[in-house]
Amino acid sequence: MNIRKGTAYNLLENLKQNIPEWQISDSAILRFRESLPSIIATINDKFRIESNYAENQAMDQYLDFLIDSHRYFGEMLLAIYQFHLWHDLIDEAIWYAQSISSRGLDENYLARMLKAWMIAMYSYIKPSEANELCPPLNWLSKNVHELFQFDVIDENINSEASQLLEMLLQNKMDDAENLVRSFFDRYNSEDVIITELFAPVLSEIGRRWSKNMISVADEHLAVANLRIIYHAFFRSHYPKNKIEQKIAICCVPGEEHEIGAELLSLYLQNKGWNILFIGHSAPESEIIRMIDQNKPFAVILSITLISHLPALKSLIMELRRRFPALIILAGGSRFNQAREVIKKLADASPDSLEECHQILKEMLKSNA
Description:
By secondary structure, this protein is mainly alpha-helical. Helices cover 66% and strands 6% of the residues. The chain has 18 helices and 4 strands. The protein has a 4-stranded parallel β-sheet with strand order 2-1-3-4, sandwiched between helices. α14 (259-270) links the parallel β1 and β2. α2 crosses α6 (107-124). 35% of the residues are buried.
């Protein structure tokens, strides 16, 4: 998340410098994990009832979004607690404030939501452990006003990416395919077409949805059309010779955003790698089974949300137990503190597609 330089930027730095380093016991985290479904259900019931009487019609209009966001907020909290990612807590809270603000909700809603979480925790978790879990939420509630002051920088995408996105949203597939061919003819680089065309379009789709500039249906149409475009492009550019060793690529359990992992798989296939793309929605047991069955020399795990860090840790620990020689790479999003957690869990966390390719080549060479 990028904050524009100025007063708001200084405020963010001040918040991060002054946020406490809370210590939360393993037992409190375990109780929170066990109680999380009940806590979320209680909070959802509260806001379902309130939406019928809310003066701000945005609460009723976006109730489904809010209900879903409560689940994400709880899963995010669990990861923050488990890995002590207090700076990331601020970033996540700012993103949440931006998302609800774009849908007509204000500081009052966020303050009431945080209060509801604390009340629900004391309802399902014994006081001694709730006393450990609630201070970060209480700190956020005292800084609600500040969370709404940030101006998140919108990344300017190049003109071709902007044109491509509009074509995807308008379902102009012939025009989109012609644009992609023209772009490739100009640069003659699969790396550039991903980093300068496909990836910026994908980021802009996510940004517009988070800011309520496009609907869920618009988002799904644009993403589906983008996948058609890049699959057709890569099918026509696959190399004839392939590296014998397999690379497995999959999302961590619970991760639904697979398009980044899919682009990586196509990119590495274009570089000659023999790719086993498992995709998203596979539970840990199925990922283990596929690894055991196909015997890849490396696996790349994609994670885009902090809330999936516990699943990432669990999967990596089981992979290391079952397949000690397996090389494990992980990444997928621009995290803050969480990136250091990922680097400690995996053998490497590449910053780019090209870096991932180079790391795999070096590891293959060292294992030869």
